[in-house]
Design brief:
The complex is a heterotrimer of chains A (353), B (414) and C (542).
Chain A (H helix, E strand, L loop, with lengths): L47 H17 L3 E5 L3 H6 L11 E3 L5 H19 L6 E7 H6 L2 H10 L3 E7 L40 H7 L4 E6 L3 H13 L4 E6 L3 H4 L6 H10 L6 E4 L2 E5 L8 H5 L6 H4 L5 H18 L14 H7 L3
Chain B lengths: L1 E5 H11 L4 E4 L6 H13 L6 E4 L3 H13 L4 E5 L1 H6 L1 H9 L5 E6 L13 H5 L6 E4 L3 H18 L3 E6 L7 E5 L3 H7 L16 E2 L8 H30 L7 E4 L7 E5 L3 H14 L5 E5 L1 E3 L3 H8 L4 E6 L10 H8 L6 E6 L9 H12 L7 E3 L4 H12 L8 E2 H7 L2
Helix pairs in contact in B: 1-2, 1-7, 3-5, 7-9, 10-13, 11-12
Chain C lengths: L8 E2 L15 E5 L5 H5 L6 H10 L2 H9 L5 H7 L4 H4 L11 H14 L14 E5 L3 H12 L3 E6 L7 H4 L8 H12 L4 E4 L6 H7 L4 E4 L5 E2 L11 E4 H11 L7 E5 L3 H12 L3 E5 L11 H9 L3 E3 L2 E6 L3 E9 L5 E11 L2 E4 L3 E2 L32 E3 L10 H19 L36 H4 L12 H8 L13 H5 L5 E5 L3 E4 L9 H5 L5 E5 L3
Parallel strand pairs in C: 3-4, 3-6, 4-5, 6-17, 8-15, 9-10, 9-15, 10-11
Antiparallel strand pairs in C: 2-20, 7-16, 12-13, 13-14, 18-19
Helix pairs in contact in C: 2-3, 2-16, 3-6, 4-6, 6-16, 7-14, 11-12
The chains are: A alpha/beta (353), B alpha/beta (414), C alpha/beta (542).
């Protein structure tokens, strides 16, 4: 009877919820969660990447009984987790280079397969390659595409904080238009990052026809865990891009990491969806739709858009970006997603406000 | 077993005999035939329990190799020239991680200008990358050195480049004695990684090391390199005893015993050409020794000093040089011979596939014995006609026929 | 074991040596805030907490928590005007939690399962006299008994219950429910003596060797008003009408009855008369907005066909008509006569314009200080001006509801308990308010309030069957699960989950969480993401 009553105060919006059957709680709710990334790491206060990495890795560890090997690109995550003499990882992990984690992952996957074959093990450990948006969408893009194309048995996790944070917040191809970075400063006639640049790697991943592609954020743990778990049920190349806000780089308070990620979802700024074999199979619906300004005003990287001198045209353009996502992916209510959403940059390039 | 086969096929067979778990490469001439053959062995099933991976770049080839080696399997790759440069970041990384990857470098010039033919610029550009560099003078040497390379790499805990001259060796058909699988298995036991990525014993590889410990890490890495000298010697001895092949080693001396006037130091296939010429010269009564430098890294200073002994003059026949400086091997030899009266020069020749004939060696020997190597560095096989056809019109400069010394070059710029 | 190289390869979890807690400038702490429902409850119920257990399906635990403050959940779940719901933070989201209906469910559950109160572990040997077995007296008796004192109640009426029996109609509070909840008190060892009025309180105290007395005599006398009338028109008092219905089950008045007044008693009378076949009409001098009667009760009355004459006073009564003067509200909202009159056909008038305290016994207490219509008490402990004599309920305040009476009874009991130890009871300081602004409403899922099933309208006009039915278990849990747990942990694991540094320790079911200050960097994500505002960031002492 208790289980049949589906209303649980916070439902599954919170991490645990004592009223839920334990099997329905998030992995992060369990007292004996794997903590693949443990305390004592040197991430900044409120680091979204540290959070996202633990969420995702723990889910993968649960899905595989702890048989996970990780290849990590150079970047904040690598630097804060493994400065000699301390590692915060509790699983086999390797850092090689900035741009090669997908390929290192491929190599490990091959090695794991061969070792299992040699040892007569039925199940080989599974492999995760991971990096930030710079290591994924820019410098590591070639190896990533190669890994996809070969359909190597690697789950690639991109922790997307929309700029090169480790080197001091420079623009990457995942930086949204109008955002401040150290290389797209808030000066001149068009402050912030240029419009009509950047690339949509989840869509590009889908175009490879790989078994599984998803986007997720640190603001929806259940969704993220389900996606990682589902990803581990496939063999072959898989890609999940996780929005992991960076309080330092985005200029927001360290406490709002999860909130700002939620705003990115609820505004439609960051569409959350999943795709199998190149086709979108589900989208995470917006729960409480928000205007884009509510997302922007949490972040000083958009300070030029939230003050009195804000350019209404730019704001309108950003709102249009969200609206386009909402429409293309069917993020609201019972909307059906359009069959083939285009990369958001295509919209930006074709529409000059 | 004796086979009349292409060098690349011989090397492929040797690699297969070593039972690698992962072979990953990207096509670049003149290395292609090697991995094509390994790929075929895997596909046809003669090389079992091995994953052959076609990747999208040399950078990924090296990265996959890093991953598979760290994953605990014997790993092989091959490249050349531009490819080696494209993977350079990974090359340094692999040695820093202490991964015993074996990589063939089918030595080739580096562009621009693009040139597919042999010289030693590619591997020597990675001189300081922390890899062992073993040079092969023949295809038999290449076959044997590859087999030894796995053992050396795994014992030392560093990756090894086996450098064989592109086309000259890789594409040459020769009679090769390929060891049997039983022999190789006896020589090279199944790979036991020192450390690898294993959920049963999780480790974090590739940590960030700050100034507090970075120097010490480098010191320890260098210690491995120094240890490698004796490992190479020991493994070579073992291999030679097993197969009876005279391959490998830190260096190899030919006709050195009575050649106190002149010795040539040569790396790679030129050694074979030089040996023939030396034999001819011997008939003329000219006694010249050849030191085939097998191990460029680690550089065998002691062994080389012994080999040179009290020789009056040493000419390094070099197929690469350092822009703005001079030869690359010569300064090393000078270090080895510091405090002696040995005269040491570089004869630069054979760049970008320019053939080094017997006559070239003959010329070097004759000039050397005539005391004409007055300077450290000489462009030996340069064609002044070609140079002058350009410089005369543009700068009014002409060079005389024959080798050009470093000072001639410098004076022409004044 | 692997042969690991120096520095470049590290052992797992070695970062635990790095105590990042030293980075912290702000420190998260758990704060227990006062939910608005608890704050509002006149009986001081820990509503949030008993909803917590009800939501888990642990009804007995919930009932035990509830009855720590209030021994009458089944009655409360029927007659309490549940002002708590008006303050419920959930109201900002969709609708307030149906606290009252869950309380009733728990009360009925306890009756159904014969849950009893535990007798005190230790008897103190102190004797306390309670005068009056209304809600205040019974509540005081209950709490005093829990302290281990010997409690004797003397009640003037035939049966215990006070206004719960003689003021509230059966269709709102079936008497078997009331009887069962009173019996649970006497089962604790409280002795009850009915049908005797204590005329001399001092003497009673002295003769019975009581160490203290709690007065809870209520306000049982209807306020009178002078209406010029002819001989034949009946003018009756609300309490006597309700009392007659209680004792004889019927009352013969007339068909057309005007009920004069706008309070809950007026509504109770009108709805009772409607059930006896009469056609009551409520005459009230102000409008609906100004009406003190409970809104839900008034809605039910109108549904049942009861007419209301707003902005009207009765200026005179003849045989079968009333002379009504129309009123108008002035700018202060007070009704002023307009001088306009009209006639209203009515055979009788029931006055329901207020109740007074029976002061006959009180006046004998020489040192007892009185206010206009109440005994003066110290609100901290309900002690009167005479040491050892306490008062609670309608006689001690102007907030005359059952719930207030129960709350005052509890305070009086605590006052007596302290007094018996030679101390003075002071109410403990309250936690800071749990404000909606401090919460994170995004997390709560949407769920409208469950509507309690009601008796069909046709049956309401001719029987005294209970109008409002209880919730099914299913609905009660659903309702309990709508609670936002304002300002108090509900073990949602959010803090534990969202900490980027894994610096929150989960202590296990019912035990909550602990911050691991060795690693907590003070980022504040836990505080920001706590749905119920249970975590606060405070400056670190440096």
């Amino acid at each position: 009877m208790l289980d049949q009553i589906k209303f649980y105060q916070t439902g599954s919006n919170t991490i645990g919820n004592r009223l839920l059957n334990p099997s329905m709680r998030a992995i992060q709710a369990s007292a004996d969660r794997p903590n693949g990334l443990i305390s004592g790491h040197r991430a900044c206060q409120g680091c979204g990447e540290a959070l996202g990495a633990r969420y995702a890795i723990d889910a993968a560890m649960r899905a595989t009984g702890g048989k996970i090997v990780v290849a990590n690109a150079t970047g904040c995550l690598e630097v804060f987790s493994t400065p000699y003499p301390e590692s915060a990882w509790q699983l086999p992990w390797i850092h090689s280079l900035f741009g090669n984690s997908a390929a290192v992952g491929s190599g490990i996957a091959a090695a794991m397969k061969v070792r299992a074959e040699k040892n007569g093990d039925a199940v080989a450990p599974r492999v995760i390659a991971q990096g930030g948006d710079g290591g994924t969408t820019d410098i590591g893009f070639g190896p990533l595409s190669g890994m996809f194309e070969r359909n190597d048995d690697v789950l690639y996790l991109c922790y997307d904080n929309e700029a090169y944070m480790n080197t001091g917040v420079q623009r990457s191809s995942a930086t949204p238009p109008s955002a401040r970075t150290a290389t797209t400063q808030l000066v001149g006639e068009h402050p912030g990052a240029d419009w009509g640049k950047g690339k949509d790697v989840p869509m590009i991943a889908m175009a490879h026809g790989i078994p599984y592609v998803a986007t997720a954020t640190v603001a929806d743990l259940r969704d993220l865990e389900e996606k990682v778990t589902k990803a581990m049920s496939f063999h072959g190349a898989r890609y999940i891009q996780i929005l992991t806000p960076c309080p330092l780089g985005w200029g927001c308070a360290s406490g709002v990491t999860v909130t700002v990620a939620r705003m990115a979802m609820e505004t439609g700024f960051f569409p959350v969806y999943e795709a199998e074999y190149g086709k979108i199979t589900s989208v995470r619906k917006i729960r409480q739709k928000q205007p884009v300004i509510n997302y922007l005003k949490l972040q000083r990287r958009y300070a030029h858009l939230t003050g009195k001198k804000a350019d209404p045209n730019v704001l309108a353009r950003l709102q249009a970006l969200c609206d386009t996502n909402i429409k293309n992916f069917g993020l609201l209510g019972d909307d059906e997603p359009q069959l083939t959403p285009a990369a958001i940059q295509a919209y930006e390039r074709s529409n000059k406000v | 077993m004796l086979n009349q086969i292409e060098g690349s096929l011989g090397v492929a067979k040797a690699v297969a005999l070593c039972r690698p778990g992962v072979v990953c490469a990207y096509p670049i001439s003149p290395q292609t035939h090697i991995v094509e053959n390994v790929g075929k062995f895997v596909k046809e099933g003669t090389l079992k329990q091995c994953d052959f991976i076609n990747v999208e770049s040399e950078f990924s080839a090296m990265s996959v190799s890093i991953g598979s080696s760290a994953g605990g399997v014997r790993t092989y790759t091959a490249t050349a020239s531009q490819g080696l440069l494209f993977m350079a970041e990974g090359v340094y990384n692999a040695s820093g991680l202490g991964l015993p990857i074996v990589m063939t470098v089918a030595s080739r010039a580096i562009g621009s200008p693009i040139n597919i033919w042999n010289d030693h610029t590619d591997s020597l550009s990675q001189r300081d990358s922390g890899w062992l560099q073993l040079f092969c003078e023949s295809n038999q040497d290449a076959v044997d050195t590859h087999i030894m390379a796995f053992k050396i790499a795994e014992e030392v805990g560093l990756p090894v480049m086996v450098c064989m001259d592109g086309f000259v060796l890789t594409h040459a058909f020769e009679r090769l004695d390929i060891p049997s699988q039983e022999e190789v298995d006896k020589f090279l036991p199944e790979y036991q990684p020192r450390e690898f990525l294993d959920p049963k014993e999780p480790i974090s590889m590739g940590a960030m090391v700050d100034p507090d410990a970075f120097t010490e890490v480098r010191f320890l890495q260098e210690r491995k390199m120094v240890k490698a000298l004796s490992v190479i010697e020991r493994v070579t001895k073992e291999y030679r005893e097993l197969t009876g092949h005279h391959s490998g080693g830190l260096l190899d001396c030919y006709n050195c015993d009575n050649a106190t006037d002149l010795k040539l130091i040569i790396m790679g296939s030129t050694v074979g050409t030089a040996k023939d010429e030396i034999d001819r010269l011997k008939k003329e009564g000219i006694n010249v020794g050849i030191i085939s430098l097998k191990s460029f890294r680690p550089f065998p200073y002691e062994a080389l000093k012994q080999a040179i002994g009290n020789t009056k003059q040493v000419i390094c026949v070099e197929r690469a040089f350092s822009f703005g400086a001079r030869g690359i091997i010569c300064p090393e030899v000078k270090r080895a011979m510091e405090g002696t009266n040995c005269e040491i020069h570089t004869a630069l020749c054979g760049l970008g596939g320019r053939a080094i004939y017997g006559s070239t060696i003959n010329g070097i020997v004759k000039q050397a014995l005539a005391g004409k190597f007055t300077e450290e560095f000489t462009w030996f096989d340069i064609n002044s006609n070609v140079l002058n056809s350009y410089l005369k019109d543009t700068e009014g400069v002409t060079f005389p026929q024959g080798p050009i010394t470093d000072s001639q070059l410098q004076n022409s710029c004044k | 074991m692997m042969k690991k190289p120096f520095a470049t390869t590290l052992d797992p979890a070695t970062s635990l040596a790095n105590h990042t807690g030293s980075w912290r400038t702000l420190r998260p702490i758990n704060v227990f805030k006062l939910p608005p429902c608890n704050k509002q409850c006149p009986a001081g119920e820990n509503i949030q907490q008993w909803l917590y257990y009800a939501a888990e399906g642990d009804y007995e635990h919930a009932w035990r928590i509830l009855t720590e403050e209030n021994p009458f959940p089944a009655c409360m779940g029927r007659v309490c005007y549940h002002t708590c719901e008006g303050k419920c933070n959930r109201g900002f989201l969709d609708e307030s939690v149906g606290i009252n209906s869950v309380e009733r469910f728990l009360g009925d559950y306890a009756l159904e399962h014969n849950l009893a109160f535990k007798r005190p572990v230790r008897e103190t040997g102190k004797k306390v006299l309670i005068v009056g077995a209304g809600p205040a007296g019974l509540s005081a008796a209950y709490h005093l008994r829990r302290f281990g004192h010997t409690v004797h109640i003397v009640e003037m009426g035939k049966e215990a219950g006070g206004m719960m029996r003689y003021g509230i109609p059966v269709y709102r509070l079936p008497r078997n429910v009331l009887d069962a909840e009173i019996k649970r008190l006497t089962d604790m060892g409280i002795t009850l003596e009915c049908g005797r009025k204590v005329e001399d309180i001092e003497a009673e105290k002295k003769n019975g060797k009581y160490d203290a007395v709690v007065l809870g005599v209520g306000a049982g006398i209807s306020t009178n008003v002078d209406i010029p009338q002819g001989d034949t028109n009946h003018i009756l008092h609300a309490l006597s009408v309700l009392g007659d219905i209680e004792t004889s089950g019927d009352v013969q008045i007339a068909r057309r009855v005007a009920v004069y007044g706008g309070g809950n008693t007026a509504v109770d009378v009108a709805r009772s008369l409607r059930r006896l076949g009469a056609e009551p009409i409520i005459v009230y001098r102000r409008n609906r907005d100004k009406m003190p009667a409970n809104e839900e009760e008034m809605d039910a009355a109108i549904q049942e066909g009861i007419q209301v004459k707003w902005l009207s006073t009765i200026a005179g009564a003849q045989k079968d008509t009333l002379k009504i003067e129309k009123m108008a509200l002035d700018e202060t909202g007070y009704p002023q006569p307009t001088g306009e009159f009209e006639e209203l056909p009515a055979d009788a008038v029931v006055l329901a314009i207020g109740q007074n305290v029976d002061k006959s016994a009180l006046e004998k207490l020489k040192d007892l200080k009185m206010q206009k219509d109440a005994v003066e008490v110290d609100p901290q402990d309900m002690q009167t001006s005479i040491p050892g004599i306490f008062a609670a309920g309608d006689m001690a305040t102007s907030d005359r509801t059952v719930t207030h009476a129960i709350g005052m009874g509890k305070t009086a009991a605590r006052g007596v308990n302290a007094y018996l130890k030679g101390a003075k009871y002071e109410k403990p300081a309250k936690h800071e308010d749990a404000l909606f602004e401090d919460m994170h409403p995004w997390y709560y899922t949407d769920a409208p309030k469950t509507v309690r099933p009601e008796l069909e309208l046709a049956r309401r006009t001719n029987t005294f069957d209970e109008v409002q039915h209880g919730l099914t278990e299913e609905n009660a849990i659903f309702e309990a699960r709508r609670c936002l747990s304002c300002g108090n942990c509900m073990e949602c694991d959010n803090c534990y989950g969202v900490c980027p540094d894994s610096a929150v320790i989960k202590l296990g079911p019912g035990k909550g969480y602990e911050f691991n200050y060795d690693y907590c960097k003070g980022c504040g994500v836990c505080a920001q993401e706590c749905p119920c505002g249970h975590i606060k960031m405070v400056p670190e002492k440096i």
